[in-house]
Design brief:
about 140 residues, alpha/beta, 6 helices
């Protein structure tokens, strides 16, 4: 399958934790194009799992994404974005910079995501978190 994406656009990788967003981004996009919400948390608190800095992390994510779009560069958002509100802010960011918004939804069976999350060494997620994210995605 070949997917063509414009050079200037905001791509949002949407999916529950463990759906493969980061792996997909590494395989298909430049590392410089990808802005990862967990990485933004780590930049601010030295811990990508620190939920207490989520608001600040997403402000940073939007700032970086906006700067890239202003410079005419593609930006790929690697965050769950399963809630309508989080996608709305990304759509507005694309509108603010007169560029296309592209959604790529990784709708993976939640059981697979749960299994992947169990083997992760970088974080621990409760099963109900993945189920809640999957419900929001639907």
């Amino acid at each position: 399958m070949k997917i063509s994406i414009p050079d200037l656009c905001l791509v949002s990788l949407i999916g529950v934790s463990g759906s493969g967003k980061s792996s997909f981004a590494r395989k298909h996009f430049l590392s410089t194009e990808t802005v990862n919400s967990d990485h933004c948390r780590a930049l601010l608190s030295d811990d990508e799992n620190d939920q207490s800095v989520t608001a600040e992390a997403f402000a940073l994510l939007h700032q970086i994404a906006g700067a890239r779009l202003k410079l005419g560069r593609r930006v790929v958002i690697d965050a769950t974005s399963v809630q309508k509100e989080s996608r709305a802010s990304l759509l507005q960011l694309a509108r603010d910079h007169d560029c296309l918004a592209v959604a790529m939804v990784l709708n993976i069976d939640p059981k697979i995501c749960e299994e992947r999350n169990v083997t992760r060494t970088d974080r621990t997620l409760k099963t109900h978190v993945v189920r809640n994210q999957h419900r929001a995605l639907k």
